[in-house]
């Protein structure tokens, strides 16, 4: 099965982290949570406490088959850190699986690789993607090759189904 990296930090939307991770694990995939430091505890927007498996300085994107970027305020924080941007850029450049929901695609903009890619995101992120050259669609899930994006927690069932199917 596949090994999936999850990049995340404080203020992640709890359910947008836990639900896809559970779906991936239930399908037999290995999920590795990456934060600033290994074993760091980070806190979700809704008060959940989670633990990182690996620190970004020790994370090699070559070791992973896919990337998950949950939403909340976490992606906005991560996109200000070049280590996470470069990590994300690797998945675009190698055409590996990339999954993101809600505010998650914010970090995609920093990679400079959104032009011409079909995707969706939370309402307030849509104009940013559009101005960065993405082709934005207002659907629960948008699939563009190995890039799977979704809008909100209301779309999690469809998103989780699509990410698992993409890896099969």
From TrEMBL:
It comes from the Bacteria. Residues 3-165 form the DJ-1/PfpI domain. NCBIfam families: PfpI. Belongs to the peptidase C56 family. This is C56 family peptidase. It comes from Holzapfeliella floricola DSM 23037 = JCM 16512. The lineage of its organism: Bacteria, Bacillati, Bacillota, Bacilli, Lactobacillales.
């Amino acid at each position: 099965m596949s090994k999936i990296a999850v990049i995340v930090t404080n203020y992640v939307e709890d359910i947008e982290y836990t639900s896809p991770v559970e779906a991936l694990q239930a399908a037999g995939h290995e999920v590795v949570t990456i934060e600033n430091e290994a074993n760091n505890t980070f806190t979700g927007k809704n008060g959940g406490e989670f633990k990182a498996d690996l620190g970004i300085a020790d994370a090699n994107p070559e070791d992973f088959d896919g990337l998950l970027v949950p939403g909340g305020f976490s992606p906005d924080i991560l996109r200000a850190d070049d280590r996470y941007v470069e990590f994300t850029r690797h998945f675009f450049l190698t055409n590996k699986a990339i999954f993101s929901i809600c505010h998650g695609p914010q970090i995609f903009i920093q990679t400079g690789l959104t032009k011409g890619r079909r995707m969706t995101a939370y309402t307030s992120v849509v104009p940013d993607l559009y101005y960065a050259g993405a082709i934005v669609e207002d659907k629960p899930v948008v699939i563009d090759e190995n890039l799977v994006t979704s809008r909100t927690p209301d779309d999690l069932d469809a998103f989780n189904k699509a990410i698992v199917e993409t890896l099969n």
